[in-house]
Write a structure and sequence with these properties.
about 800 residues, alpha/beta, about 15% strand, globular, 26 strands, nucleotide-binding, DNA-binding, Rossmann fold, 31 helices, helicase, seven-stranded parallel sheet, Ligase-associated DNA damage response DEXH box helicase
Length: about 800
DNA sequence: GACCTGCTGCGGGCTG
């Protein structure tokens, strides 16, 4: 049977994009397919692979023919099932299998004897297979590789690892056909080049463009809505009303503790929903999450409160409605989450934004505008990360060995390493052969040795074993296990959270009130507790700044407001606040940088609103403080948020005069000034922990007996110190510094912002009191110093002062 | 009457 006939039999139409993929693949061409989920993209590439197999009966019948990479284990099983279905009729002698960390030992043993015709696996598992000495043999019949959700991988080190693995497979099979699937738009050319190493390839666009509806829950009384804060419980009742009429709702929050608190508050308000609503985030135990995902699939849950843990995966959910509490921070993420609803052809996706403070009404308006204008973030692959390369070299040495020159050429065919210099390569090779300058005396860092023929191999079985256990680029959070004393795992929290507690203390986790009994062997043993007051664990997760695209959309909305245009319910709701801002000083726009000063008994506040996201503001604030202090010595306390930053000085300071005289926003000496103004050394040291782990310097410990994060942190800082003292040219140190600059301080964005600011007119205002844009920054600064209870008193006092000053 | 900030993803050797 042909693929066409198979479709015809079911009365399905073959979409033009599916035909395009089949045709290209049949002609041996690789490419990237951009299509939304649930639009038939799986079958587009799968049938392309089958069509190739049918056309080439001469190829060996046994062995691995198609490799399917997926970024998540949870997706592997679904995918394998979907591939299985058409196979029975088209190619009855083919088999489909999967290989992830979950695969049983028995199944692994079976696969060691012979791989299935099509294998669904992860980038990490693929690397493990490539580290087997007979890898070349096992992949000898490979014909096509499919990389699902390539947009999820391409921007990070997992994607780089996939690139390197693909480079190896292409080396063995120059005609290998590679197709990537990408669900979000952005720069498709870059996505294709990253996947194919810059080689020629198609870009096919799926025909289905889904209709998208974005709406906003407007607070009942917008003029009394909080000016700052991120939890948003003021919106509890509107959210309940939104959940009520629907059979299933996904509620996205930005942090795990926020999810916990919302879950608890929803249950308190609606005790009748017990058992019908559930919680899902990355620190909950796998079993708990699997149960939630299963129940969602079965349609037995009314609502799930989650973090980005449900951005991907769990396809074909019967979700009717999606709520986003607080800022989504990026337009691509918003689209991704909206796509979780209306998961059937022809049905629109819908997402409802729930603001947690007044300015998020503006964000809601900005989101609509950015989506309408297709202003969507693009992802870029990391540039030649040497930690990943070092890991790859050991993997290659295990997987049959390598010749240095040949592997150098091969690695350079991976997009991220296309500019790798011979010197960098030699450094990496030296690093795996003798640990570089400072570790030469330790045999455990002589991981790779060349034999008489020049073939590099791993000389020692134990070293190889240790390496395989460390393959991958994800570095786990600093966490310890939480389990019931009676048995049953709940999830993980940070060591630092538990270390602040004493036995008998209560905390809220996994939607339950728990009492700490004792800590033993990296596990916090707990039992159920009753009562009310309890701490909620805080996890120290990543900080996603507002994207540039999103921020620009906000400035455009402000531009409208400054011209008295208030379109849509969001802008109408925030109108009083923006008018107050305008009366007290002015509205920032793309043409105008608003700078406010405000004297009070604390000292002098300087507020600046570039609208460039918090990481850029952190850099800008530090830069400004540093440069101003260089003119006249003075100390500042700094506070930043997504919209601007504040510098507070004890003494008054003539900012307008200084800014007119000196270009404080100049980008000359930018890197030097940024490094000097921030504690870049400490940031780099923290960053180095991840690099040391990926490069294989730090061993995580054997399964079942993990080392504590404190031990791991200690050993990675030891390496950091040793390298700094005795091996200053160590390129991994340099990498740590570059990653801090690029990823944490977003240097290129900072630079772009400085360029933008130069074109903005500086507008200075001296204000009587904090403005709507300034107030949240003041709260933010106070928050850093005070516990939350004291903070609420303080906030109340600040508001009282504001209102007194505003008059009756 | 106004507070609660920071996400996600993977992997594992040996053993009659």
């Amino acid at each position: 049977m042909t693929p066409q006939a198979w479709f015809k039999q079911r009365g399905w139409t073959i979409f033009p994009f599916q035909k395009a993929v089949w045709k290209a693949a049949l002609q041996g061409r690789s490419g990237l397919l951009h299509a939304t989920t649930g639009s038939g993209k799986t079958y587009a590439v799968w049938f392309a692979a089958l069509a190739r197999a049918i056309k080439q009966p001469a190829k060996p019948k046994r062995g691995l023919r198609v490799l399917w990479l997926t970024p998540m284990r949870a997706l592997a099983a679904d995918t394998a099932r979907a591939l299985q279905e058409p196979l029975a009729e088209l190619l009855p002698d083919w088999t489909v299998g999967m290989r992830t960390g979950d695969t049983s030992a028995a199944e692994r043993a079976r696969q060691t004897r012979s791989l299935p015709s099509a294998l669904v696996t992860t980038p990490e598992s693929l690397c493990l297979m490539l580290s087997q000495a007979n890898a070349a043999e096992r992949f000898a019949a490979l014909d096509m590789v499919i990389v699902d959700e390539w947009h999820e991988l391409m921007g990070n080190k997992r994607g780089v690892q996939a690139q390197l693995a693909l480079a190896r497979l292409r080396q063995w099979h120059p005609d290998l056909v590679v197709w990537g699937l990408s669900a979000t738009p952005g720069d498709l050319t870059e996505a294709r080049d990253t996947l194919l190493g810059g080689a020629d390839g198609e870009i096919v666009e799926g025909a289905l463009r889904k209709e998208l509806v974005i709406d906003t829950l407007i607070p009942v009384n917008p003029s009394r809505f909080a000016w700052s804060g991120h939890l948003g419980l003021q919106m509890l009742q509107p959210v309940i009303d939104a959940i009520e009429p629907h059979s299933s709702t996904l509620i996205f929050t930005n942090t795990r503790s926020q999810a916990e608190l919302w879950y608890q508050n929803l249950l308190e308000a609606r005790p009748d929903w017990a058992g019908l609503i559930a919680l899902h985030h990355g620190s909950l135990d796998r079993e708990v999450r699997d149960w939630v995902e299963q129940s969602l699939k079965l349609g037995t849950l009314k609502a799930v409160i989650c973090t980005s843990s449900l951005d991907l995966g769990v396809d074909f959910l019967p979700v009717e409605r999606v709520l986003q509490i607080g800022s989504a921070k990026g337009i691509a993420r918003l689209l991704q989450r909206a796509g979780r609803s209306g998961h059937a052809p022809g049905r629109p996706s819908r997402i409802t934004l729930v603001p947690t403070n007044s300015l998020e009404l503006l964000e809601a308006a900005g989101a609509k505008r950015a989506v309408a204008n297709r202003q969507i973030e693009t992802r870029h692959a990391p540039n030649k990360p040497l930690d990943v390369l070092v890991q790859h070299l050991v993997t290659m040495a295990l997987g049959g060995g390598f010749m240095a020159d040949a592997l150098f050429d091969e690695v350079r065919t991976a997009w991220s390493y296309r500019t790798l210099t011979r010197a960098e390569w030699d450094w990496a090779l030296a690093f795996v052969t003798h640990g570089g300058q400072s570790l030469t005396v330790y045999p455990e860092y002589r991981r790779v040795q060349a034999d008489a023929l020049g073939i590099h191999r791993v000389p020692d079985l134990a070293l190889g074993r240790r390496h395989r256990m460390g393959i991958g680029t994800i570095v786990a959070d600093a966490s310890i296990q939480v389990s019931f004393i009676s048995g049953g795992r709940i999830g993980t929290v940070e060591e630092s959270f538990i270390s602040r507690m004493t036995p008998g203390d209560h905390f809220l986790f996994g939607g339950r009130l728990l009492e700490l009994v004792r800590v033993h062997d990296m596990t916090a043993l707990v039992k159920r507790a009753s009562g009310k007051k309890a701490a909620v664990p805080r996890w120290n997760g990543g900080k996603l700044p507002l994207s540039s695209e999103y921020a620009h959309a906000l400035l455009d909305c402000l531009q409208d407001a400054s011209e008295q245009r208030y379109d849509g319910p969001e802008m109408q709701a925030i109108r009083p606040l923006l008018e107050l801002q305008q009366r007290s000083s002015a509205l920032p726009t793309r043409q105008r940088l608003v700078i406010e000063t405000h004297l009070c008994k604390e000292g002098q506040h300087l507020f600046v609103y570039p609208f460039a996201g918090r990481s850029v503001h952190a850099g800008l604030a530090a830069l400004l403080a540093y440069r101003a202090a260089a003119m006249s010595p003075m100390t500042f306390s700094i506070s930043v948020n997504e919209y601007g930053f504040e510098l507070l000085s004890a003494e008054a300071f003539d900012w307008p005069a200084l800014m007119r005289r000196v270009d404080l926003f100049s980008d000359t000496d930018l890197i030097a000034d940024v490094l000097a103004s921030l504690n870049a050394g400490e940031l780099a040291q923290r960053r180095f922990r991840e690099i040391a782990r990926i490069a294989g310097l730090v061993f995580q410990g054997y399964p079942g007996q993990p080392k504590s994060t404190r031990q791991l942190q200690a050993s990675s800082s030891l390496f950091f110190e040793v390298f700094r003292k005795h091996d200053a040219g160590n390129l991994l140190l340099l990498q740590a510094q570059q990653e801090v600059l690029e990823q944490e301080l977003e240097l290129s964005r900072l630079q772009a912002t400085l360029v933008e600011l130069r074109d903005r007119e500086l507008s200075f205002y001296q204000t009587e009191r904090a403005t709507p844009l300034g107030f949240p920054l003041m709260v933010e600064r106070v928050r850093e110093r005070l516990s939350s209870e004291k903070l609420s008193d303080r906030v109340a006092r600040m508001i009282a002062q504001l209102e007194k000053a505003a008059g009756p």
